[in-house]
Amino acid sequence: MTMPDRMAMTEDTEAEEAEGARPRPRKAPTAFRTISEVADDLQIPQHVLRFWETKFPALKPLKRGGGRRYYRPEDIALLRRIADLLYTQGYTIKGVQRLLREGGLEGEAAPELPLGHPDRDEAEQDEADTATLALREALATLEKLAEELRMLAARR
Known about the structure:
This protein is mainly α. A 3-stranded antiparallel beta sheet has the order 1-3-2. The N terminus is likely disordered.
């Protein structure tokens, strides 16, 4: 289905709902979901979900005839966890793979990223903190200059 077709379908659905048509009933929490339902729910493109299946062996949706995927509730929970680690906490795919191998995704509590680099001693960490502070000050100066330039440009 092409993007314009999909957009027209969405517009038709929204128009039906606005006219009082019955919305689709919600599935039970234990029901299997299609890739499009999961992609919409997690706001992650379907091709990314398929890619993750190749990178995370623990992610194994049920496949029916024609390769149609059905995700179990535990698959969806794992996808939520992977998305959180990648997009919110800043892990790389390799980092999430390592966590999966080590069993670090079993619990509900999200592992926190370390604030400092574990291999740095205190002097190196202080130096890194000083460099970070200097960069923040430089950024503030650049933002101030950019604002002044915008004001000058607006006068012309």
